């Protein structure tokens, strides 16, 4: 396919070597034209992943000690079910499925942000250490203050943001380089992991057990009470991500190129880092540290979409599909025993990480 040329928003000419992009022109109320660039393959992939997510979600809503057929699950979702089925599907199981969708999407977007900023498939909050920092903040609240859910959530947010600030400042040398950010993050993550282990060993048995269960990353026991705050915060953060997405693409081309296009490099990079950390801390606050979704989702979505770089929307949908599927496996693999979903994501993510490292080694 021959490259196509189009004028970008800064008046310069950009060359697009990608797949066919359908351009839709719509007339607004003032007689002007609105242009919408629609990547057909990305749209199809997102629709297929949404279908997979919905299918696994329906299976999850019907699975358990009280089995509900898929038809009855769908009727319950539309408000046409018996009192017992409504209680099981809507009141007990639906919040967990929705939390898996929202948390998976948040992790996918966070992973896309950091992999774009570092220009490295290993540049996810799992590797850089922001997950560990959020875990440290939550553990400090659990161990020292014996706080409740909202106190632990606030501690996770504070820990993640504080860790991001330390990593950013230590990695800053007249700008941020992706490789330096990853190396510094790995070092900080190792220090915080040791500190977390020390705190757990110093705690009494009951507190240590509670912290260990929470630290595995689990959606068990979550209800509508936890779903509400996650949905509200995510609804506030996603528009910010969409606003910064175009800047993220320009930053991938290098700082000098981004500056020549009129992008304020460091303020936009800092805004992306804070937003990505907030998404990771949000998930950690709600369900504990869930690893490898942020690492795997953007790269798997990129390969399905066949795009030159990671994209926000496909990464979000892939993250939701991965976490919903992992949670279904966690519930049913050893039923009636339910595993923390973090155990499943670590198991799958370890295999994925080996595959990714082997692929990177073959390119050298």
Describe the 3D structure.
- With 364 residues, this protein is mainly α.
- It has 14 helices and 4 strands.
- It has helices at 40-62, 70-77, 83-118, 125-128, 130-145, 149-171, 178-202, 205-215, 224-252, 255-260, 265-287, 293-305, 312-332, 341-363; strands at residues 4-7, 13-16, 21-27, 33-39.
- The chain has a two-stranded antiparallel sheet.
- Strand 3 (21-27) and strand 4 form a beta hairpin.
- Helix 5 (130-145) crosses helix 11 (265-287).
- Mean pLDDT is 82; it is low at 1-36.
Topology:
Blueprint: E1 4-7, E2 13-16, E3 21-27, E4 33-39, H1 40-62, H2 70-77, H3 83-118, H4 125-128, H5 130-145, H6 149-171, H7 178-202, H8 205-215, H9 224-252, H10 255-260, H11 265-287, H12 293-305, H13 312-332, H14 341-363
Helix pairs in contact: 1-2, 1-3, 1-13, 2-3, 3-9, 3-11, 3-12, 3-13, 5-6, 5-7, 5-8, 5-11, 6-7, 6-11, 9-11, 12-13, 13-14
Summarize the structure.
It is built from 14 helices and four strands.
Spatial arrangement of strands, main beta sheet: 1-2
Task: Give the helix proportion (percent range).
Answer: over 70%
- Strand residues, percent: 5-15%
Provide the succession of SSEs: EEEEHHHHHHHHHHHHHH
Total strand segments: 4
Major sheet attributes: 2 strands, antiparallel
Mean pLDDT: 82
**Count of helical stretches:** 14
Tertiary shape: globular
Distance between the termini: 28 Å
Please compute the radius of gyration using only Cα atoms: 21 Å
Helix-strand makeup class: mainly alpha
Low-confidence regions: 1-36
